[in-house]
């Protein structure tokens, strides 16, 4: 039986310039009500290296470090059905309200997709009906999920480093 899932609220401030989008949080993240809560997810170590904070900080401090660097976190999907945590198991997708998000975050210049599923869901459900902020760029990045074992840590980090270039 497929579980009915509801995503997390965005982590953001109105001055955010970079929006990192996942597809839908995994089971551990939803249980913890924290983005990228799985202990083997590469997201927080990558962000810590890019933005100069300790990945071992408590979740509120890690979030604050991103906010201080004008980085917002959210997911493409507000609701979906999924058994387990894999993106490939996602069904019955309902996207988040990006019109409202962009209206309250006018400084967004880059939307970075944490994995292919986030990018594909955004292209399918959001882009056809949403005007992006002026000059906003889309950036596809390899998934930070521990299930994405096809890419070496160094290669993943190299691709994610592009984020810092957009905020320089």
Automatic annotation (TrEMBL):
GO molecular function: DNA-deoxyinosine glycosylase activity
EC number: 3.2.2.15
Database matches in InterPro entries: Hypoxan-DNA_Glyclase (IPR026353), Uracil-DNA_glycosylase-like (IPR005122), Uracil-DNA_glycosylase-like_sf (IPR036895)
Enzyme class, first EC level, given as a word: hydrolase
Coiled coil: none
Domain Uracil-DNA glycosylase-like: 9-164
Keywords of this entry: Glycosidase, Hydrolase
Pfam families: UDG
Protein's name in the database: DNA-deoxyinosine glycosylase
Lineage: Bacteria, Pseudomonadati, Pseudomonadota, Gammaproteobacteria, Alkalimonas
């Amino acid at each position: 039986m497929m579980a009915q899932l509801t995503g997390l609220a965005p982590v953001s401030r109105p001055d955010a310039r970079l929006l990192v989008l996942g597809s839908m949080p995994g089971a551990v993240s939803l249980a913890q009500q924290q983005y990228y809560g799985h202990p083997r997810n590469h997201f927080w170590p990558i962000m810590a290296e890019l933005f100069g904070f300790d990945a071992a900080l408590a979740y509120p401090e890690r979030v604050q470090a991103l906010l201080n660097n004008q980085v917002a976190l959210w997911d493409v999907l507000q609701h979906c059905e999924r058994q387990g945590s894999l993106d490939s198991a996602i069904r019955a997708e309902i996207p988040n309200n990006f019109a409202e998000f962009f209206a309250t975050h006018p400084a967004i210049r880059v939307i970075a997709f944490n994995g292919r599923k986030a990018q594909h869901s955004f292209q399918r459900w959001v882009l056809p009906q949403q005007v992006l902020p002026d000059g906003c760029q889309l950036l596809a990045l390899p998934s930070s999920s521990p299930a994405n074992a096809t890419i070496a840590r160094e290669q993943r980090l190299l691709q994610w480093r592009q984020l810092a270039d957009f905020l320089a």
